[in-house]
Specification:
6 strands, 3-stranded antiparallel beta sheet, 149 residues, 3 helices, alpha+beta, rod-shaped
Length: 149
């Protein structure tokens, strides 16, 4: 590779930081820095690496904290709004519950969950229940609601 062009440079504020840019016939460019420039570039690189490490560590710790907070918040929301399984067996007024039968003998129950925003729907097909028992239960339910069958 033969040098075909050269550009010398020197810093005005720090004259010892100088060097050459070399352009070669194989289409490559090369920087030949002075020792002072090489030392300054190494120092700046070390500062940049320290800054990047510090930034990366802070960002990583911040993301870990944010992740931990989101896990904690998810757990809390689950504890507050996820009590449907615990409150499913709570007694409810007949007037607040809907119980219907379909043509195939299935039973459909609709009731409110933990809060008025949740709605629980439970359905049983005709072959999942005892038909006589279901007939009696629905008749009693309708009687308690004082609605005709």
């Amino acid at each position: 590779m033969t040098e075909i062009a050269r550009l010398r440079f020197k810093s005005l504020s720090k004259p010892k930081e100088s060097g050459k840019l070399l352009l070669h016939d194989d289409g490559t460019i090369q920087v030949q820095p002075s020792e002072a420039l090489r030392d300054e570039m190494a120092r700046l690189e070390e500062v940049a690496l320290c800054r990047a490490h510090l930034f990366g560590t802070r960002l990583g710790v911040g993301l870990l904290i944010a992740g931990s907070l989101s896990v904690g918040l998810g757990w809390l929301v689950g504890r507050i709004f996820g009590k449907m399984g615990y409150t499913l067996s709570a007694a409810r007024l007949v007037s607040e519950v809907s119980l219907t039968r379909d043509g195939g003998g299935g039973v459909h129950l609709t009731l409110h969950g933990v809060n008025r925003l949740q709605k629980i729907q439970m359905n049983w097909n005709g072959d999942e229940i005892l038909r006589d028992e279901a007939d009696q239960f629905v008749a009693k339910f309708n009687e308690m609601r004082q609605t005709p069958e």
